[in-house]
From TrEMBL:
Domain of life where this protein originates: Bacteria
Source organism: Haloactinomyces albus
Pfam families per the UniProt record, alphabetical: ABC_tran, TOBE
Mop domain mapped to chain residues: 291-360
GO biological process terms on file: molybdate ion transport
Sequence ranges assigned to domain ABC transporter in this UniProt record: 1-239
Protein known as: Molybdate transport system ATP-binding protein
Length: 368
C-alpha cells in the first residue's frame, strides 16, 4: 500500500505548558524531533497518536482527517493506524514473538495462517526469525526492540512513531538496532516521526529535523544543514560533535575534497551516504600537514577561538565543493599560545582514524 503525507498543526495545553507546532512529513521521510527535556517532544507525539487532545488543530494523512477541532473531529487512537515503537518493547508477555507480531494483522481480519506467515516474514526482515517461538521474558532488550519493530510494521500503519527507541538499550545493543532501523526505515514509504535525545539517531535515521524549545519549533530543516549550521543554542550544544557527511568507501568517506578514514561503527554500504563523527577533544592542530602519518589531516581556516573552561574551542571552516564544512577542536590554552593561533590562520585539523566513527547516513542533504 502506498502512503500519504502527514500534515499536523496543533496547540496542546498541559497544565501551564503549551505546545504550538506544525509539521509536514512526506511518505518515506523520517523527521527527528529534538529538544531539551520538557520542550514538548512527547506531547507532540501523543497528539499525533491521539492519546492527548489538542486545544485546537488539524491532523491529517492525505485526505483522511484524524483531527479537526473546528469541525469536532477527533479520531480515537485505535482507529488512527499508528505504529508505535517506544523505549521499551511492551510486548504481550504471554504470547510468543511470532504471535506478538501476528496480533496486528489478525486484528485487521487476516486468517490465523496468513497473519502468522506475515509475522514470520517481518521477523526475518528485522533479523529476528530465530526468535519466533520465544516468549518476551526470554528476549534481551535489543531482541525485544526488534520484535517490537516487526510488530509495529506488520500492522501496516499509516504513520510510524518512534519514541526514543534506542534509549533503553545498552551501549552494545544500540548500534545494531540503529543500523537495523536505518535499513528498515530507508526501505519503507510511510511518514515517520522519531523523538530522540541523541544527535547520532538524527544523523543516521532522519531526513529532516525539527527542534523544539519551550513548546515552540525553533529550528527545522534537512538534518545535515541544521546540524552543520545550528542556529539555536540547544542545537549547537547537541551538535557539539564534529560531523562530516559524504559518500562511503572502503575505510571511510569522501566529502568533496576531504577524505576521512575511520572505524565502521555501523555497517555502511560503499557509494552510499555516510557520516563521520568525532569529538572536538580528539582533534590535534598542526601548522604543517603531518608527513607520512596515517592520521586524517584536514586543511581549515580558523574562524573562532573561544575559551571553554580548561580548553579552548577552535572553530574552523574548510571549503568542499563550494560548501563550508565547519569543524571544532578543543585544545589547551598552552597549545594555542605555542602555535600562535589567530583567527584567519590556515592550519591542519588532525584526527586518528580510530577516533572517528563511520555511520550510515540518511539523506538529509541540502540537495533537492
Ligand atoms: N500530564 C501532564 N500534565 C501536566 N503537565 C504535563 C503533563 N505531561 C507533561 N506535562 C508538561 O508538559 C511539558 C512538556 O513535556 P513533554 O513530556 O512533552 O516534554 P519532552 O520534550 O518530551 O521532555 P523529555 O525529553 O523529558 O521527555 C513539561 O513541562 C511537562 O511538565
Amino acid at each position: 500500500m502506498s502512503h500519504d503525507r502527514l500534515l499536523a498543526e496543533v496547540t496542546v495545553d498541559r497544565g501551564t505548558f503549551t505546545l504550538s507546532a506544525e509539521c509536514a512529513v512526506e511518505p518515506g521521510d523520517v523527521v527527528a524531533v529534538l529538544g531539551p527535556n520538557g520542550s514538548g517532544k512527547s506531547t507532540l507525539l501523543s497528539a499525533l497518536a491521539g492519546s492527548t487532545r489538542p486545544r485546537e488543530g488539524n491532523i491529517g494523512l492525505g485526505d483522511r482527517v484524524w483531527l479537526d477541532t473546528a469541525r469536532g473531529v477527533d479520531v480515537p487512537t485505535h482507529r488512527r493506524s499508528v505504529g508505535l515503537l517506544a523505549q521499551n518493547a511492551l510486548l504481550f508477555p504471554h504470547l510468543s514473538a511470532l504471535d506478538n507480531v501476528a496480533f496486528g494483522p489478525r486484528a485487521a481480519g487476516r486468517s490465523k495462517k496468513a497473519a502468522r506467515a506475515l509475522a514470520a516474514r517481518w521477523l526475518s526482515d528485522v533479523d529476528a526469525g530465530e526468535l519466533a517461538e520465544h516468549r518476551p521474558g526470554r528476549l534481551s532488550g535489543g531482541q525485544g526492540q526488534r520484535v517490537a519493530l516487526a510488530r509495529a510494521l506488520a500492522a501496516d500503519p499509516e504513520l510510524l512513531l518512534l519514541d526514543e527507541p534506542l534509549a533503553a538499550l545498552d551501549v552494545d545493543a544500540a548500534p545494531a538496532m540503529r543500523g537495523l532501523l536505518h535499513r528498515v526505515l530507508r526501505d519503507q514509504d510511510r511518514p515517520t516521526v522519531l523523538v530522540t535525545h541523541d544527535v547520532l539517531d538524527a544523523v543516521v535515521l532522519a531526513d529532516r529535523v525539527l527542534v523544539l524549545s519551550a513548546g515552540r519549533i525553533v529550528e527545522r530543516g534537512p538534518t545535515r544543514d541544521v546540524l552543520a549550521r545550528p542556529k539555536a543554542a540547544f542545537t549547537a550544544h547537541l551538535a557539539g560533535l564534529n560531523l562530516v557527511t559524504g559518500i562511503a568507501d572502503a575505510g571511510g568517506l569522501t566529502s568533496g575534497a576531504v577524505r576521512i578514514n575511520g572505524r565502521v561503527a555501523e555497517p555502511v554500504v560503499q557509494d552510499e551516504p555516510a557520516a563521520a563523527v568525532f569529538a572536538p577533544s580528539t582533534v590535534a592542530v598542526h601548522r604543517e600537514r603531518p608527513d607520512g602519518s596515517p592520521r586524517n589531516a584536514v586543511r581549515v581556516r580558523l574562524a573562532g577561538i573561544e575559551p571553554r573552561g580548561d580548553v579552548v574551542r577552535l572553530r574552523a571552516a574548510t571549503r568542499t565543493t563550494g560548501e563550508d564544512l565547519v569543524l571544532a577542536a578543543d585544545i589547551t590554552p598552552a597549545a594555542v599560545a605555542d602555535l600562535g593561533l589567530t583567527i584567519g590562520d590556515e592550519v591542519f585539523f588532525v584526527v586518528k582514524a580510530t577516533e572517528v566513527a563511520i555511520h550510515p547516513a540518511t539523506g538529509g542533504s541540502s540537495s533537492p
